[in-house]
Amino acid sequence: MKKKAKAAAQPEWVSQIIALRERLHINQAELARRMECSAMTISRWERGLLQPSAEHFIQLGNLGNKNDAWFFWEMAGIQPAKMIQALDGSSRSRKATQAPSIQFPDSDRQPVHPEKSGKVVGIPLLKASAGTHGTTGDKRNSLRSIPSSEFVGVPAAWCPNPAYISLLRVSGHSMEPAIRDGDVVAISGYETERRDLYGEIVLATSEPLGLFISRLRRYDTIDVLEADDRTCSPIIVKKTGGLRIVGKVLWSISGIP
User: Which residue of 97, 190, 200, 252 is most buried, as measured by CB atoms within 10 A?
Assistant: First the structure.
């Protein structure tokens, strides 16, 4: 029982590194050779005793597939918006901003291609939930590693950069009336730069709280996450606190079963 509890408390990047190595069919020594570090370092990563540096997260991303890459790159602090700006004008940039081919699992509906219809976009509803202040959400560092349960058709006008938008269900009451318990929110992972998000509702993540919805504000030189229910204590965003902004809440909708 103690071992299971310890494993459940491990950061998400631990399981992602182990899964990447297993998909590559290599042992810790071979991964260490590719990463140009020691096998002991890999062992410490996989036991959650040492977090990889930003440079190592980038290297891990380079070893994996598309989902692996973005998970590790986001852990390194690379933001999708800045990546697209750096690649602007190249074929890689056009590919990155193109909406994915949408399919609807367990449904007889046809895939929706926004570049063809111009009216409706299929956005993935992820198998995870975000809390609000006082309610713990799923412990995830990145939305890209979360599978979807279905795709929801929404107006294309609501979805700038649709390839970076995901839907999450919210639990908790501290962001009411803006966001209610059980609402589904649209998260744009394209927008994560704090200075552009002051006053906005955002999705953040940290080890103790998991995914949670809050409003980002700045007071003098201090960034703070606040609930709309002012009886809840604010959270100060510290540089070394492990808290990260995952994206901006674009809109919310009620009544999705």
Answer: 190
